[in-house]
Amino acid sequence: MYRQETIEQTKPVNARRGKIERRLLDQNGGRHLVVVRYTGTQNPHEEWVYSRADIDASEVVWAHDMGVEENRKLIAYFKDRTVWLFQPDVDPESLASY
Predict the structure, then answer these.
(1) C-alpha separations of 41 from 22, 49, 66 in Å
(2) How far apart are CA 54 and CA 18, in angstroms?
(3) Are 68 and 79 in contact (CB under 8 A)?
(4) Is the pLDDT score of 3 beyond 60?
(5) Segment 87-93 mean pLDDT
(6) Pairing assessment for the beta strands 32-36 and 95-97 based on DSSP bridges
(7) Cα(44)–Cα(35) distance, rounded to whole angstroms?
(8) Per the confidence metrics, is the pTM higher than 0.90?
(9) How many CB atoms are closer than 10 A to CB 42?
(10) On the CB side of 70, how many CA atoms lie within 13 Å of its CA?
(11) How far apart are CA 67 and CA 43, in angstroms?
(12) Following DSSP, what letter does each residue of 2-37 receive, concatenated?
């Protein structure tokens, strides 16, 4: 039997990501950009980078590390945000200033 799923049921789930995002907002408030840098040993079943449909209005934007020059462009675009580096393969609980 087919059943239609809501957006909440179909979006990817990563409980640790949600916990980090809540802690970030609770402790710092404001708007943030989290640059996610993988080392190549990430869990393929645990995605960290996904954002809301209206990315510009999101309190927290998650983005893949794209290298120095492309990151610079991304940071310039989101200039009103605090920028963080997140390395889930190194420490999946901590953010560092970018």
Answers:
(1) 25, 16, 17
(2) 18
(3) no
(4) no
(5) 90
(6) unpaired
(7) 18
(8) no
(9) 15
(10) 6
(11) 21
(12) --PPPHHHHS---HHHHHHHHHHHHHH-S-EEEEE-
Residue found by looking up tokens 């990563």 in the block: 14
Phi/psi of residue 56, each to 5°?
-60, -30
What are the helix and strand counts (H, E) for the chain? 3, 4
pLDDT in tens, 11-28: 555 788 989 999 999 999
The structure tokens listed for 2 are 């087919």
According to DSSP, the residues that pair with 95 across neighbouring strands are: 86
Q: Which residues pair with 86 in a beta bridge?
A: 36, 95
pLDDT by residue (tens digit) across 29-84? 999 999 999 987 777 777 889 888 899 999 999 999 999 999 999 999 999 999 99
